[in-house]
Design brief:
By secondary structure, this protein is an all-alpha fold. It has one domain. It has helices at 21-40, 52-64, 71-83, 90-108, 114-146, 150-163, 165-175, 179-206, 211-221, 225-235, 237-251, 254-264, 276-290, 298-318, 322-328, 330-353, and strands at residues 43-45, 48-50. Helix 5 (114-146) packs antiparallel against helix 6, helix 5 (114-146) packs across helix 16 and helix 6 runs antiparallel to helix 7 (165-175). InterPro entries: UPF0324_pro.
């Protein structure tokens, strides 16, 4: 009886060798590393040591001092640098930004007339009170719905309702807020400020808003004074005057809101930070209106103030790196967007339909 023969086992088909992504990833990482090394590598010329990153930043900064640079363009250039080469002077620009903004606002006062400013302030006072109370109240309920902490919610709400980073900086010590809570609130406000600076002027032109209407809308619906002034300056001289006056009058609400915050959060022994630069703005405006000897210098000072504002926005943009934007997180950003959209649309509706 013959034994049946069995066919030898066939070798299993070999799968096609997969393309290893690790090699591509490693090559890409190597390219990024070489690019970073090239940016940061020190060079020496005439006894000075510098890097390519510092040279690029300095060249763009010098451009922002020229007449070809506008506040929106300066902000855009800062954002591009932040996402590409980075800011080699991050600590220095962070310290300069607030001071430069304050001096620029004071300088803009030399281009204002006190009588027109009083009229603009009267028109904006009702909008200010209603929008401030409404924003703080809405922020409380939306923040609870999102499950955010009270401190972050209050910081973002105050930044939206009053004057952005200045309000957050004033209220944070009253709340005894942690550094990460302050960073989240500032990051949210600055990102939305950047969007507003680009978005508002085209919307204003599309809706055929008058100079007065647009200035009022900017002052109410844009968080930070820098972006308010930048957007209004892009729209027109009268819009700039209305927006600056109403926004600074709005900023005075930092004082009562800070006091109420201390009471509501039961904080004792805290100091309320006063916005002294607003007094400087008022003094400059009064000098320009009532002291004839100042008027010949006023256009020059105003011009310097506008350059200072342009550089301020460049510094702000250069500080908004991808890491800083990611650090904001989803829920705080949702809160900021909801508050911003509501205050923008509601104030625009009232302005358009006001008698």
């Amino acid at each position: 009886m013959s034994t049946p023969t069995t066919a030898p086992p066939q070798p299993a088909p070999q799968p096609a060798a997969p393309v290893a992504p690790a090699a591509d990833t490693a090559a890409e990482a190597a390219r990024r590393s070489r690019f970073s090394e090239g940016l940061h590598a020190p060079h020496r010329l005439f006894g000075w040591e510098f890097s390519l990153q510092q040279v690029v930043f300095s060249v763009v900064l010098v451009f922002c001092l020229t007449p070809w640079a506008s506040p929106p363009l300066a902000l855009a250039l800062g954002l591009v640098l932040a996402q590409t080469v980075g800011n080699p002077f991050a600590q220095q620009t962070k310290g300069l930004t607030q001071k430069l903004l304050q001096f620029s606002v004071i300088g803009l006062g030399f281009g204002m007339n006190a009588h027109a400013a009083v009229q603009a302030g009267r028109e904006g006072i009702l909008f200010t009170v209603v929008s401030l109370v409404g924003t703080l109240g809405l922020g409380y309920f939306v923040g609870r719905w999102l499950g955010l902490g009270r401190t972050v919610v209050h910081l973002i709400s105050c930044g939206t309702a009053i004057c952005g980073g200045s309000a957050i900086a004033a209220v944070a010590p009253v709340l005894r807020a942690k550094d990460e809570e302050i960073s989240v609130a500032l990051g949210t406000v600055f990102v939305l400020n950047a969007l507003a600076l680009f978005a508002f002027p085209p919307i204003g032109h599309a809706l055929a808003l008058t100079q007065n209407q647009f200035g009022l809308w900017c002052a109410i619906a844009i968080h930070d004074t820098s972006s308010v002034v930048g957007a209004a300056a892009a729209y027109g001289a009268q819009a700039l005057q209305v927006a600056t006056t109403v926004k600074l009058a709005r900023a005075l609400w930092i004082i009562p809101v800070s006091i109420c915050t201390a009471l509501a959060f039961r904080q004792r022994g805290v100091k309320v930070k006063l916005p002294y630069f607003i007094a400087g703005f008022i003094a400059a405006m009064l000098l320009n209106t009532y002291v004839p000897a100042v008027r010949p210098l006023a256009p020059f000072i105003t011009h310097l103030a506008k350059i200072g504002l342009t550089v301020t926005l460049f510094f702000i943009g250069a500080g908004l790196s991808a890491r800083a934007i990611r650090a904001v997180g989803g829920r705080p950003f949702v809160l900021g967007v909801v508050l911003w959209v509501v205050i923008s649309l509601s104030s625009l509706y009232v302005i358009l339909h006001a008698a």
